[in-house]
Amino acid sequence: MNQWTYREEPSDVLIVGAGPTGLVLACDLARRGVRALVVERAPELFPGSRGKGVQPRTLEVFDDLGVVGEVLRWGGPAPVGMTWQDGARAGEYRMFEDIGPTEDAPYTGPWLLPQWRTQRILLDRLRELGGDVVFGAELTGLTQNTEFVTATLIPAGGGSPVAVRAGYAVAADGGRSTVRRLLGVKMTGERVDPAPLLVADVVIPTLDRDNWHIFPPAPGGTGFASLCPLPHTREFQFIARSAASGAEVTAEGVRALVAESTHIPAGEVTEVLWASDFTVNAALADRFRDGRVFLAGDAAHIHSPAGGQGLNTSVQDAYNLGWKLAAVLRDGAPEALLDTYEEERLPNAAAMLGLSTRIHRGEEQRGAATRQLGLGQRGSSLSREIRTGLAEGALTAGDRAPDGRREGLRLFDLYRGPHFTLLAVDTPLPERLPELPGLRTVRTGAYEAYGRGLYLVRPDGYIAWAGPGGDGPEASADDLRAWVSRVLLG
Predict the structure, then answer these.
(1) Which of 27, 40, 218, 345 has the fewest beta carbons closer than 10 A?
(2) pLDDT of 34-48, one tens digit each?
(3) Which cofactors go with this protein (predicted)?
């Protein structure tokens, strides 16, 4: 692909960064017919396993994007933990709650998949949808006005700067985001751990792959290490506290740290495929939108790796933003719809940031919250509930729309795609429907996970509007049409 293919014609959206965030957003926009230019400073996809835990809610996103089959094929469940003491096995234990699939929540987790594999799967999907990534393109400048964004890119290896124009831009360029720096958006946070962490992908043929091997610190010590077998590879992900910070990470240094923090001699580490060290911080951008530019993923929030929340929260940033950009660019939705990205995602990111920090410090255990199925948008301006007298715990507007099978239909199959869905549960569909582009309607019998009523399901799988069912649903349908016209159509 010619790396400057898009320079003659403005794109709808410029995405800076081809990590999981940028690739999910690009896939979502491509299937909606939105022209996105994805640029990545590196010459190729990220090579390491760093964000390896895919939570159930993210698996639902991948289902909708058409990649869950490959994710399940190349991933695997978390193995049973094995604690070691003084070179001897001290006992097995479950690293995570053993939660099985249910009708309304078909995916369990975390599902382990090296980050490099996740990105390859997403890039393949993007190319199937007609998109691609421009590698070796470094962003050095960014300006905007009320109509468009102009970015300055420099080709890898030198060359003349190239200016590209887009209707909007999205910073998906990581924790050290160039876009965020150019915008002057600050991050507020704290250092979670005084010691830096080293993470590496290593090959150790003498170590069994049946367990996630945990090496607690010696009495009075601060060291900690783990070796997690990565599914369908020869590799382990090695994580350990490291005394050195800022120095170049070398293969010999990784081997020495393995020997120091485990019983495994350095010589048994036959390969070091990738390694990096980092300071464990928790930080949140002061805002997620600056005019026509949006921050997503690590550019907006930086997590401790504990609890596996970083990549998953990032994916869901992109999933939230994609349909809203398309609605404004393609369907005539009001520009104000884009304000709801920050309204919804900033508090969710803050909640997940706090969770991962507490888990890192041992103040909270991994549990239901880490699966992210309970996250919702009840307080959003895009959520309207007109039913009254609901039982405690009832599904309501702003909640995730559950899966289920009724009368030969799977709800997630019906929701999949770029459309809104109007679901009538144990009630007739209204005769007059809201004029949402591509609206899909479904009527099904009684289903306890929902309860009787009408539900407008957003393209990202959350319930936007909910109203009572009955023999004559036209009264609530009038409210639905008025709300859609005001909020989603403008």
Answers:
(1) 218
(2) 999 999 999 999 999
(3) FAD
